């Protein structure tokens, strides 16, 4: 499971999302540099790259 947060997210902050990831045994946490709350709208290439790095290559 991937848990991600935008570095500039004021709503679900990196601190909050780090805490969420720590409570899920199989979770990996990724922080998106410079990204706000609406990551997929404002930083789609960064979100896509993060997903590409996380997902197995043989999917």
Describe the structure.
This protein has 59 residues and is α+β, with helices and mostly antiparallel strands. It is 41% helix and 17% strand. It is built from three helices and two strands; from the N terminus they run E-H-E-H-H. The chain has helices at residues 14-22, 39-42, 44-54; strands at residues 2-6, 28-32. Strands 1-2 form a two-stranded parallel ribbon. Strand 1 (2-6), helix 1 (14-22) and strand 2 form a beta-alpha-beta unit. The longest helix is centred in the C-terminal third of the chain and has 11 residues, at 44-54. The model has no long low-confidence stretch (mean pLDDT 95).
- Major sheet attributes: 2 strands, parallel
Number of strands: 2
**Shape type:** flat
State the helix count.
3
Q: What is the overall pLDDT average? A: 95
Order of helices and strands: EHEHH
Distance between the termini: 15 Å
Structural category is: alpha+beta
Uncertain spans, ≥5 residues at pLDDT below 50? Answer: none
Sheet with the most strands: spatial strand order: 1-2
Could you estimate the helical fraction of the residues in percent?
Answer: 40-55%
Beta-strand portion reads 15-25%
Characteristic key phrases:
2 strands; 3 helices; two-stranded parallel ribbon; 59 residues; alpha+beta
Short description:
This protein has 59 residues and is an alpha+beta fold. 41% of the residues lie in helices and 17% in strands.
């Amino acid at each position: 499971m991937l848990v991600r947060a935008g570095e500039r997210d004021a709503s679900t902050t990196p601190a909050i999302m780090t805490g969420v990831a720590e409570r899920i045994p199989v979770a990996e946490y990724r922080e998106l540099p410079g990204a706000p709350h609406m990551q997929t709208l404002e930083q789609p290439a960064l979100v896509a790259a993060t997903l590409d790095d996380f997902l197995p290559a043989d999917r």
